[in-house]
Amino acid sequence: MTEQQLVLLGGLWLDGSAWAGVVSELAPGRHAVAVTLPGQGDGNTSATLADQMTAVLAAVDAGAGESVVVGHSAACSLAWMAADARPGRVSKVVLIGGFPSADGERYADFFEVIDGAMPFPGWAPFEGADAADLDEPARRAFAAAAIPVPEGVARGVVALSDERRFDVPVVLVCPEFTPAQAREWIAAGDVPELARAKHVDLVDIDSGHWPMVTRPAELARILAAV
Predict the structure, then answer these.
(1) CB-based contacts of 28: which residues, under 8 Å, 6+ apart?
(2) Of the residues 39, 69, 116, 226, which has the fewest C-beta atoms closer than 10 A?
(3) In this structure, which long-range contacts are made by residues 133-141, counting pairs with CB atoms below 8 Å and at least 24 apart in sequence?
(4) How many angstroms separate the CA atoms of 193 and 99, rounded?
(5) Where's the AB hydrolase-1 domain (predicted)?
(6) What is the pLDDT of the chain when averaged over all its residues?
């Protein structure tokens, strides 16, 4: 039986190197692909959400078998879009610290766009549980490495069309929020895509919003288990 590959997708401002600590903690031979998304580390400042989706599907299609697609933060929507586009190739979706947007919604229109890109807005919007486990040196390093996200990505429109995505099992990793909170949001209709998903498991991790940076070993164990 061909082993499933892990396809790792970082959220806003991150390139594929954000997963280095997680990948190094995975068992030898465990095939993981940390995707550097177009516009987030490849120098393509005019990249669009469609370009990122093309890169994700290329990683899925390149696998010898099925893929577990892992999305962090905003990229939870990308991971879910991959399940929609390849329901027969994506065996599971792991969502870390985020939720998939619905069809027709903007991908990540959260912060100001300046000169065609959305730069990291500083730490003020993330004070509290999001960044509680990042010390000052870690915050400075993160901000210095943060890649402005092209407007065509941030303001791209999520497209979903295949109802078979709801059959793909989902694991929701809960960092700065608890599984109980997530269940409440889903039950209240705040996350309509997950409310319709047939198999949703919730896993807690004691971290802020970026566990691949602050808890790579624990996150690697969770990914290995799913």
Answers:
(1) none
(2) 116
(3) 133/207, 133/208, 133/214, 133/215, 134/208, 134/210, 134/213, 134/214, 138/213, 138/214
(4) 8
(5) 6-221
(6) 96
Question: In angstroms, rounded to a whole number, what is the distance separating the alpha carbons of residues 172 and 197?
Answer: 12
For the segment 138-163, what is each residue's pLDDT rounded down to a tens digit? 999 999 999 999 999 999 999 999 99
Q: How is 82-132 classified by DSSP, letter by letter?
A: HHHH-TTTEEEEEEES--PPPTTSBS---S--BTTEE----SGGGTTTTTT
- List the alpha helices (DSSP H) in the chain: 20-25, 49-62, 75-85, 136-145, 151-154, 179-187, 192-196, 211-214, 216-225
**pLDDT tens-digit profile of 99-128?**
999 999 999 999 999 999 999 999 999 999
128's tokens: 């509290």
Domains of the chain, start order: 5-225 (3.40.50.1820)
Would the pLDDT of 185 be above 50? yes
Q: Which residues contact 180 (CB under 8 A, 6 or more apart)?
A: none
Instruction: Average the pLDDT over 36-44 and give the result.
Output: 94
Q: Write out the two tokens for 199.
A: 């198999």
Two tokens, residue 194:
């997950």
Pick from 87, 32, 56, 115: which is nearest to 197 by CA? 87
Contact 149, 117 (CB under 8 A): yes
CA distances from 71 to 2, 14, 35, 81, 193 (A): 22, 12, 11, 10, 15
Q: Residues 33, 146: contact at Cβ < 8 Å?
A: no
